[in-house]
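Notes for week 9. Today we move from apo structures to complexes. The key idea is that a small molecule is not decoration. When we ask for a structure prediction with S-adenosylmethionine present, the ligand SMILES becomes part of the input, just like the chain. The input block below holds both the sequence and the ligand string. Read it once before you look at the output, and try to guess where the molecule might sit.
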Amino acid sequence: MPTLDWLDRQAAFSTANKTATHVLRPHAAGHVFGDAAAARDNLLIQGDNLQALKALLPFYRGQVKCIFIDPPYNTKSAFEHYDDNLEHSQWLSMMLPRLQVLRDLLREDGSIWVTIDDNEGHYLKVMMDEVFGRKRFIATIVWQSRYSRSSDTAISISHNFIHCYAQNPDNWKLTRNRLQRTSAQEKQFSNPDNDPRGPWRAIPWDAPNIRANLSYPIITAKGSVRHPPPGRCWSRTEPQWLDMVSNGKAYFGKNGDGAPSFKQYLDDAPPIVPNTWWSHDEAGHTDESKKEIQALFGTDSTFGTPKPERLLQRIIHIATNPGDLVLDSFLGSGTTAAVAHKMGRRWIGIEMGEHATTHCTPRLQKVIDGEQGGISAAVGWQGGGGFQLLQLGAPLFDEQGDIHPEVRFADLAAFIWMRETGTALPVQAASGPLPLLGVHEGTAYYLLFNGILGDRRPASGNVLTTAVLQALNELCGHDGPKVIYGEACRLGDARLKAEGISFKQLPHAVPR
Ligand SMILES: C[S@@+](CC[C@H](N)C(=O)[O-])C[C@H]1O[C@@H](n2cnc3c(N)ncnc32)[C@H](O)[C@@H]1O
């Protein structure tokens, strides 16, 4: 397959693997905002997104329904809150490992949407083809981000691109949501004959597919006989047409003698299939997003490159349902998180700049308090929910390969589970209180660490002894092979074999 080449491409391919997995810990500026129970679902993380994405992987691998990112476009500008001026190859080397980890976080029925412009958009498309696979490409949407024209350019740029890929495109076509009609689109329906069933529009009965049972004579209201036009057939069978006739839905034009069609009523019309042209009146524009930010933070404390809430509403509506998880790893002023929250989705946002705490945190606190800007009125937002503010902590393993003292049971449990099974161990499952992490393909995985059995002395609860094995069997036994991670093992080989145990010593036996 043809691929994109650039300086350091080879090195960029190993960056994600080489990036250490860090723990996530409560932020120094505050931890839980809003309702504590609801806050378990939503995470705002301050830090570099490659490290943060790696930290999320053990808990969220394959769990994210919709990823939206709006990375720096490499416009060579220095914005107030971040620099957008990487050398071309560096930008590509920055994006590649992040896309690789994002791909691993996507759910089987998930999709990723990336906004970009002419500076890097075409290079990004080729890179995404390689990372996600060309067969997963859905479409590049053209969003009319700007409606005014700039007079100091040769050709004024009116749009951004949005590249969209889905993990499983055939399935996604059936499960993604359609869009509600706008009032302009509803105007295609009218009621010239005062039909009591309301406004309707005529849909032609003919179609391109040629099949024997789709070619039959139709009698018009005036009594003429109609056959399908040359090279075409009717769209449905004769019994289906006769149903239309008996329900009063058959239509032959104003004179009653034209080509057969049927009345599709506005009330019965399905929502519409999204297309690749997103005009500013449907999906918002950059003037609108600037005003949204000014309404939130005042004119002195703005953020230069926000996206409008309506753009995110449209993407999140198409790609998710309430309760699904949305991720944005270039969060900026927090638009994706704010919109996901108002739409009843769970969310994770990552931002490395100080605006994680000066903009995203207060914005999301306002959302919880019932902020009424952006899409609030459209979705009936009244406030509620919560989120956790986190930052990156230590790497799981220090330079000597030892487990860092900051590492908690859940951190190591999820990491080991992911390395052993290739799947995520969600936070609740990773948090104990028992040492059994789970059973995968018939094998049970146990972790003896940080005194999970209630005894913090290294020589006891973290060591596999006869007493500990007895406790494991009583508390969370498994009738089949077992893998047990611990600091040491006092059982002999014969006993381990008889019990079906494969013992792995911490920290060195943990696959990195
Ligand atoms: C174009 S802005 C996103 C704007 C956002 N969509 C909004 O509506 O406000 C890009 C953001 O990505 C952040 N960013 C850039 N590189 C990053 C990295 N390596 N890790 C985390 N955030 C990063 C920048 O600080 C900036 O806030």
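The two ends are 30 Å apart (CA to CA).
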